Amino acid sequence: MIDxxxxxxxxxxxxxxxxxxxxxxxxxxxxxxxxxxxFGAVLACNEERLAPGAGFDEHPHSHxxxxxxxxxxxxxxxxSQGHASRVRPxxxxxxxxxxxxxxxxxxxxxxxxxxxQMWLAPLAPGGDPSYEVVRGIADSTPYAVPDAGALLHxxxxxxxxxxxxxxxxxVYVHVVRGRLSLAGDLLGPGxxxxxxxxxxxxxxxxxxAEILVWEMTSAA
Length: 220
Description:
0% of the residues lie in helices and 53% in strands.
């Protein structure tokens, strides 16, 4: 089964007066839809846009695996475990909130910041928080989030290049940029596909494209 969700159907959030614009693919905050709570382990796929100087002040998380992909600009991160970093395009940031952590996310640079943040449910609650940034992850190099039973595949496709969709119980495909033809549908920036029980599925880039693909073993 393939369920395509369009960028224009995302729930709009954030605070435009403070320079924050958010677009949510799943139920989030006041946008509650009992039929759109999660897919596999994925609880959230948020497109965030922060103006220079804007950001999210310190706030808590727990029992969530948070993976961030910067599209444009530079993300400043600080957390209650003492980690401080700047995350740039091509980097994968992973904060495992585990039993509880607080963090700050800001755009301290001079240019607009755009990032995609994905929340995954852990297989088991509790544990100690952890944090890492993988700098300049290579195309097709999988990034494992074992506590959620998930692998993230970052794909950068040339026009006409094909994408082999993993054969897994749950696969979530998010188009960051470009266009991807998938099973008769054309997906553009911000579009996504929720895929289950689809063997031998391939996509094809219609433009140079950047794609995030989650391969998940279970619904966590």
